[in-house]
Amino acid sequence: MKSIFLAVAAIGASLLVTAQQKQPIYLDLSKPIEERVENALSLMAAEEKVSLCYAQSKFSSKGVPRLGIPEVWTDDGPHGIREEVLWDEWGGANWTNDSCTAFPALTCLSATFNPKLSLLYGTSIGEEARYRNKTVLLGPGVNIYRTPLNGRNFEYLGEDPYLSSRMVVPYIQGVQSIGVAACVKHFALNNQEAWRGHINVDLSDRALNEIYLPAFKAAVQEAKVWSIMGAYNQFRGRHCCHNDLLLNKILKGDWKFDGVVISDWGGVHDTDQAVNNGLDLEMGTYTDGLTTKGKFPYSDYYLANPFLKGIKEGKYDITLLDDKSRRILRLIFRTTMSPNRPFGRFVSPQHSEAALRIAQEGIVLLKNEQQFFPVPAGQYKKIAVIGENATRSLVIGGGSSSLKVAYEQSPLEGLTAKYGKDHIVYSLGYASGPAVYGREEPSKLNADSLIAAAMDVAKHADIVFFIGGLNKNHFQDCEGGDRQSLSLPFGQDKLIDALLKVNKNTAVVLLSGNAVSMPWVNKVPAIIQGWYLGAEAGNALADVISGEVNPSGKLPFSFPKKLEDNAAHFYGKISYPGDSVNQYYKEDILVGYRWFDTKKIAPQFSFGFGLSYTSFDLGPLSTDRLTYSKDDVIRVKFTLKNTGSRYGAEVAQLYVNDPICTVPRPVKELKAFEKVFLQPGETKTVELDVKVADFAFYDEGKKDWNIEAGDFMLQMGNSSGNISQKIKIVVK
Ligand code: GLC
After folding, report:
1. Domain limit, last residue, from 286, 303, 334
2. Cα–Cα distance between 596 and 565 in angstroms, integer?
3. Domain that holds residue 66
4. Any catalytic annotation for residue 543?
5. Does any ligand 1 atom lie closer than 6 A to the CB of residue 264?
6. Is residue 22 part of a domain?
7. Is the CB of 595 under 6 A from ligand 1?
8. pLDDT of 594-606, one tens digit each?
9. pLDDT tens profile 126-166
10. For residue 500, is it within any domain?
11. What is the CATH number of the domain that holds 233?
12. SS (H, E, C) 95-149
């Protein structure tokens, strides 16, 4: 008996050993990724390599079934995990397990000026993507706020390349720490929606490198982002999804990007260019849905059969195919085939807490006369809440970032919970119509009767909270189209004037992802810039309005007084929106506050501006030395004191000016910031390290960054429009 047992055990052991010996390296989770990639590649036929490079459905692409290499599942978006769609449709599949946590829009995250919250944001949304078994999260977006009309500004991080860079890195690190690839987008120069599919953008190399590339470069070199999405538009005559300069020279060459270039959906237009100009994964090209049937199946994608045919005929070198396949395999081994891939969570209390914190810290107090805010519960008997944005859902619409959510607490619900339903009276005030993609559908309600009803409510109230702004309708904060004017839509300016006539204690709360003109700015006692605040919108707003939370947000973009004051609108149509074929960024590097400062135009509200319920004193600015070499780090020191009676936070901002330079430079550029929380009366000494190399400009002659010796003025303040400390240093 024993001998039989031993014999069986020996056979079993030998089978195990041979199995282990036969275990291919790519499945050996203890092996380094690069070895596993090379091994998998060596086992794949050309057909299998090509099949990695294009979609098999609306949001997925093939793995290698024969080898057990999983498919790649992508999903939108930057603010939450999009609902499941049908195989080859944009429309929802009506699953019942995919209602997600809606996090605040990225303009809100940026307005926190708090990179720690970016990490919290990325980790939280990464857990939701992981739980929904996504390989790639199609976000974050870091296109620059060049014009207040851009329909997708709400998805991005504002007008300043340094702020965008500091805020995008931790978000990506957070997402990827959960074993999900982030996909920074849209690379590059997709800074408007008008003619986005083809407009041919051009600009100076300085503007490209100093304004539009830094956030992408930080995503690649600091956050090590695992994928990047090509933009729809053209740049210097080539579509960005297959643009040799952008993808081969800058991204994969200079920046050493080792991840996957994914096209935007429908952004690919040519096989030769897609093969040779740096694209790795083609998504979203038109198809009628099925690989084997239909007039345009997936197998007809530019990187599908045409690519395979070219490989077999020797038209395309196999090294091009191997490079694409390597990158996609690397993405898979970093995510779904990673040995220590964490688990996710979905609609967890932690995610609601994160959404609340980010919303609370992102809200910006723009005006607050006679201490209108905070309004403690119980102070007034009757509070009128007026405006459609107090009740309308702001997580649906807006294009690809639209969400099917587990819940969304509206401002009215939040305020009612805070003040009690006996003290709140609501009136719609204005109506905007449904959020329909691609066209406007005005409301059928009568505007005048809505105003009359709102005036009646306001007249009999102690104070009025007007809650309006923009929304996710077409021509508002929505993908696929730009806004048509800087004004508040749907008759809101007229309504605000009407409310002020019957009750001067009317505060304005704007929920939007863009600046708006404010004809009533001098007539209202208080203004709050809220953002698309997500699931916890109501609680966050009510916490700030009631004083439970002291607002600490700062504007991530300037508010112009009128559209013509904005740089992109100063040089006529060729500069914005272009002539329908070409566009040239004539303002060059002078985007946002860089423009307002240099042209001495006063904005309505400055980049970096935001009030608090307490007050702060920025103490003396000092540096460890006064003379530096180009490779030095400057140790900047200052004190910050809370001179008021409430706990709060201030954002100290350090701007730099290079007064004498062979090229024109902005009056100042943000090069460091720090958000400091202080108890009443508390003083903190803050030290910041600032690299002299960060003061460089892009030298078009040298085609590289350059810094000229001489004086540099360090300027510290709590907004780009409020510098309180200056110190001159010399760079040798
Ligand atoms: C859209 C957007 C992009 C999105 C993709 C998939 O057109 O431009 O941001 O991730 O297609 O929905």
Report:
1. 334
2. 8
3. 42-334
4. no
5. yes
6. no
7. no
8. 999 999 999 999 9
9. 999 999 999 999 999 999 999 999 999 999 999 999 999 99
10. yes
11. 3.20.20.300
12. CCCCCECCCCCHHHHHHCCCHHHHHHHHHHHHHHHHHCCCCEECCCECCCCCCCC
